[in-house]
């Protein structure tokens, strides 16, 4: 007997599968519509949203209004943008640090530090910025392992005396807050290396006790109301960077040459009429930034081609602040302008560093800027 060959009509098989596919798609569409109308799906969506908010540390008051949960993705997008901005502003080696020892907080919905922070005394770094927090609690003295206090652009008006208990503190940044004084107890932080009090606008003096800070290499007290270089700063023997721009200085002390290690000196936007000849004794000074609009006398040796100094004359025009009924708006605009000035100067100094290899005659820079 020969083999039997079964012959099928391919068109019949194709029609059968097309019918099945259409029925399956119709069922999927109907199921999707059912789930969309289902209360269980809504509950699941809200639950996942709440879990995501908790994971990101968003307070319940932000996403829960009158018992209803706002599941708008715009809220999470805003928090995510703030987080990414904070991460991009940290040093490149930030990822190398252990997050178990670093506390980060950002966003205007924060008006005070979380209660749970008090129990995390193992932390070595605080990075808190762009919040409405006004007070640093006294329990900060419990954080004996603290190395970095990074607190810029908040509403802080007072630093507790207990900050002097942080014997291992190396960096303190309280720039662009609302401080009017610095506690003298900070002088007990003898391992401090960087101090940034810029942009507080009302700060007029630093306590003499800060003279004990012999390890400090960086001090920024720009955009305040200093009328002279603080005595304690002159006693910081290892100081390499000093920014006292945008203050009320009319002259410099004759013993400014006590800062033998000083390399960068920023003095722009003051009321200086002359520079003392003692500055010629600052042998390591490589960058000097002054506001040239009031200068009438300058040691000619500062511009001598044999010196390593890059002399920058920054000429700026006074800005007339528009009068407005709300005084707070004037203060805020001044704060923003000072921050913008610092960003411009920072960019220019970075550009100067890139000129290290150019011919020597280009190292003397005359720079004119109008803001």
From TrEMBL:
Keywords associated with the record: Leucine-rich repeat, Repeat
Superkingdom of the organism of origin: Eukaryota
GO cellular component assignments: cytoplasm
InterPro entries hit by this protein: Leu-rich_rpt, Leu-rich_rpt_4, Leu-rich_rpt_typical-subtyp, LRR_dom_sf, LRR_domain-containing
Protein name: Leucine-rich repeat-containing protein 2
The encoding gene: LRRC2
